[in-house]
């Protein structure tokens, strides 16, 4: 199968419509092709939404049966044997790289400048990041393009209890970039969670990772996006904000 | 802060959070009961939609829920949402069952699969996810008819690419690209970020 053909398989893969050979070939390809890996993960998430609309309650008697059998069934240990979850692990790794690592390498330099946090970074760290930048020129260009795109606006506010939050809104690309620096460490059972707030309410943009430097987050600006807000939530995040925001970053419309 | 009000229970049905799955992974049976209550309707509904057979759906449903229990520790938030992980397991098991029944020449399953219909016409389906239904329906309407048919046949009927190609009388390569651009269009419309 040609490379061009392989790049086309993400949709069929996400809907389990490939035969076994194609499935193997595509999962192998996911290990090598970052853009397919990111796309495949998103399309699987999209397909799952299709599955959530045919809701139909199972016969009530099944509940007790399933729970009883579960109570007797040994669970798999957390360590993942590579054979079973290799494709998944690769997906996770790719996405982590794409969404956090690569952009972190690129943008933490910008963030350091923008937020004045480089006092805490050694020259070594910076030069390693610059090296990383060279390796990921494409991603860096994408980020730079975001920040310099027509109509892009930047807003920076101090965060209650400490730190700074900054948003870059690039309307021509329909993207928002969020950066934070100097946020106080939270107790182990709490997480910072970012929200994209539109007229119909907040949508989670994800939980900020704990420890070390905070990677920037890039998200789609949904129709009607008005602001970003950062709250403290129980560890792992909430489905809706449960505390008052520590900082609200209005995005110029 | 007025603009950051929590969404009401009415507008967004409660979701399985990563922390609930973590509790399940630690063997917490009460947490598994809560997960069951949140997901069983969606899981069973999807399996039933794909299989069109009550008895087989009940069997596959129990297998799926047990797989979720057994493999909860293998869930990784970096892979997407817990509910997408669960629905992927459900869809995979349902299409595997359809295909093995088909390979074994099970005529009932084959006959049922020929009844192509839309995913939303069944009045017995619960209204709990009405908002999600409306969004999916609206977003499906933005697809071209080939994209829409390809996606619906593959996802809700469990058809393979060659089956969709022969049913729609279009080349196999076209089916694959229509599935891809169809899902991409849905992703953008629904604002999905994995
Ligand atoms: Zn590719």
Could you describe the 3D structure shown?
Chain A: Residues 103-245 form the Anti-sigma K factor RskA C-terminal domain. The complex is a heterodimer of chains A (253) and B (194). Chain A has 253 residues and is α+β, with helices and mostly antiparallel strands. Chain A has 2 domains: 1-56 and 89-148, no CATH class; 153-250, Immunoglobulin-like (Sandwich), CATH 2.60.40. In chain A, 44% of the residues lie in helices and 21% in strands. Chain A has helices at 3-7, 10-14, 20-32, 34-51, 61-71, 82-115, 123-135, 137-148; strands at residues 153-158, 164-170, 175-181, 190-198, 201-207, 217-220, 225-234, 247-250. In chain A, the strands form 2 sheets. Chain A has a 4-stranded antiparallel sheet with strand order 1-2-3-6, with helices on one face. In chain A, strands 5-4-7-8 form a 4-stranded antiparallel sheet, with no helix packed on it. In chain A, helix 3 (20-32) packs across helix 4. Chain A starts with a helix and ends with a strand. Chain B has 194 residues and is mostly helical. Chain B folds into 2 domains: 16-106, Rna Polymerase Sigma Factor, Chain: A; 108-194, Orthogonal Bundle (Arc Repressor Mutant, subunit A), CATH 1.10.10.10. The longest helix of chain B is centred in the N-terminal third of the chain and has 23 residues, at 29-51. Chain B starts with 17 loop residues before the first helix and ends with a helix. Mean pLDDT of chain B is 84; it is low at 1-11 and 120-128. The complex binds zinc ion. The site of zinc ion has 6 residues of chain A, from helix 1 and helix 4.
């Amino acid at each position: 199968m040609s490379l061009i053909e392989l790049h086309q398989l993400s949709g069929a893969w996400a809907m389990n419509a490939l035969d076994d050979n194609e499935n193997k070939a595509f999962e192998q390809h996911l290990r090598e092709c970052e853009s397919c890996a990111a796309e495949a993960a998103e399309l699987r998430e999209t397909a799952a939404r299709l599955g959530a609309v045919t809701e139909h309650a199972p016969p009530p008697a099944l509940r007790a049966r399933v729970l009883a059998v579960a109570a007797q069934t040994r669970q798999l240990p957390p360590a993942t044997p590579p054979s079973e979850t290799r494709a998944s692990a690769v997906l996770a790794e790719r996405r982590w790289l794409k969404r956090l690592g690569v952009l972190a390498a690129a943008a933490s330099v910008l963030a350091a400048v923008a937020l004045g946090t480089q006092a805490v970074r050694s020259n070594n760290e910076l030069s390693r990041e610059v090296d990383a930048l060279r390796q990921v020129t494409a991603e860096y260009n994408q980020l730079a393009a975001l920040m310099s795109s027509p109509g892009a606006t930047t807003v920076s506010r101090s965060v209650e209890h400490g730190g700074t939050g900054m948003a870059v809104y690039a309307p021509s690309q329909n993207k928002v970039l969020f950066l934070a620096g100097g946020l106080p460490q939270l107790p182990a059972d709490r997480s910072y969670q970012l929200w994209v707030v539109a007229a119909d309410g907040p949508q989670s943009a994800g939980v900020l990772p704990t420890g070390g430097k905070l990677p920037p987050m890039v998200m789609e600006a949904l129709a009607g996006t008005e602001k970003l807000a950062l709250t403290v939530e129980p560890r792992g995040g909430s489905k809706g904000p449960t505390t008052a925001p520590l900082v609200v970053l209005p995005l110029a419309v | 802060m007025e603009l950051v009000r929590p969404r009401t229970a009415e507008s967004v049905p409660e979701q399985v959070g990563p922390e609930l799955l973590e509790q399940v992974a630690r063997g917490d049976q009460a947490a598994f009961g809560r997960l069951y209550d949140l997901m069983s309707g969606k899981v069973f509904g999807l399996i039933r939609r794909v299989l069109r057979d009550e008895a087989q759906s009940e069997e596959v449903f129990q297998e799926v829920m047990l797989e979720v229990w057994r493999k909860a520790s293998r869930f990784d938030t970096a892979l997407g949402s817990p509910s997408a992980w669960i629905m992927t397991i459900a869809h995979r098991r349902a299409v595997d069952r359809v295909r093995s029944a088909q390979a074994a020449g099970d005529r009932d399953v084959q006959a049922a699969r020929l009844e192509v219909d839309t995913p939303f016409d069944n009045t017995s389906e619960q209204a709990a996810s009405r908002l999600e239904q409306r969004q999916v329906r609206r977003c499906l309407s933005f697809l071209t008819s080939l994209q829409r048919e390809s996606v619906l046949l593959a996802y809700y009927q469990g058809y393979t690419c060659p089956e969709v190609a022969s049913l729609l009388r279009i080349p196999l390569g076209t089916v694959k690209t229509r599935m891809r651009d169809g899902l991409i269009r849905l992703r953008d419309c629904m604002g999905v970020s994995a």
